[in-house]
Amino acid sequence: MRILKIILLLPVLAYGAAWAYLWYEVKTGADDVVKMASPFAKISYGSVHVSLLGDEIGLDNVLITPAINQDEFRIEKLRLNAPNMLYFISANKNLEKGDFPEKFGMQISRLHLNINSESFSMLEQMSKQGETTEAGGMQILFDLDAFGCGDIKTFTLNDYRKMGMGDIVIDVDANSEYDQERNTALVSVKAGAEGLNRIEFRAELKNGLNMGSAVAGSDIPKMTLSMHDTGYYKLRNAYCADLNDSDGEAYVDRHIQVLSEKLNAKFQDEVVAAYKRFMLAGGGVDIRINPSPAAKPGGLQFYAFEDIVKMLGLDIAINGKTIKFNEVKWTGSRPQATVSGRAESKKSPPQTAQRPTVKRTAKLAPSNSALVYKEIRTADAGKHIDSMVEVSTLDGKVRRGLLEKVSDNRIYLVIKLSAGTLSYPVELQAISKLRVSN
Description:
Layout: H1 2-37, E1 41-44, E2 47-50, E3 56-66, E4 73-81, H2 85-89, H3 91-97, E5 103-114, H4 118-129, H5 139-143, H6 157-163, E6 167-179, E7 184-193, E8 197-205, H7 211-216, E9 223-229, H8 232-243, H9 248-263, E10 265-266, H10 269-281, E11 283-289, H11 305-312, E12 314-318, E13 321-322, E14 329-330, E15 373-376, E16 388-393, E17 398-406, E18 410-417, E19 420-427, E20 431-437
Antiparallel strand pairs: 1-3, 2-3, 3-4, 4-5, 5-6, 6-7, 7-8, 8-9, 9-11, 10-14, 11-12, 12-13, 15-20, 16-17, 16-20, 17-18, 18-19
Helix pairs in contact: 8-9, 9-10
């Protein structure tokens, strides 16, 4: 009888030993990270967490203090989830082989950040040093929040401070489901900043969990993004109204006017009304992207917003009110750089913009930055076909490429992209300076 009890207890004892081993591995791994990070930051934690089933591990009360200042960043709860404890026990070997669990998750509960800290100021300075002007139609997405807010082009850290932000508490719940046969991963992220906003994001990555390949590759994944205001707009509206010596509604009207001008678009009255209510009273915006085969991440910065909408299959709903982009009146002139040479969806609406061809064998110099340029007259551009040129436009943008051809009112540059090359037209009247390589 005693032998029978021992036999029955063996699985329990084995599981207990595995749990204890996993706890030890987590503790040892955390201590190793603390030691490795010591030249850069002081890291401490309160306790190690391993769930009863061993399918969840983590740390509690993680405190990070950078070595270069006295700032403190705190995570109250950090968790990693996998189907079972066996994955965590053999995690190093799995990662070396590139094996991912069918389901994996990470939760960060109550990450405390202070934007008044020295670390944030340093990050802002670094970002300014790395700024570029090659954003084209995509720049609208970066500057959108500040439209109509006085002379501000893009909000800086100092603007957020003036809005009254300081200590920010963030929660993140990220999960992935991996299909090994299709090498596809469904990634979902829920995140929220307490008293400001929350987002939900989902994307299907064709290159599996290789996020870098998915972003830098030749395809844009299908994705959805939902944003819900929980207090940020109230701060932003008051700040911008004060800068304009007006009230919140007058600022929002100005914002909508500037947005329409930047997009070269006139939206339906009901869409404008829905957006205004959203700006004043909050709510949610749902964005869905179902890209056509012509949509490639390497060249989106060259396109006008109208073309980006079509290429991405963009669908936007504001508090449930869907924008019908086929009814939007697009106004004004714009560069007609759009991509062809790749099959587009048969359901896509007819395109009126010129479709330059993607070329795979363009003869481009290996390093544009190593070339020396001299200024020439635009009238002499035709003498320099097949030469590398640098074009500065009146809106402050600078582009370099192979001079492909010259027409009565445009020059065409062949610009190198990750998926090939793009023939990009520039209107002669928009050129402030044209330089050619020696």
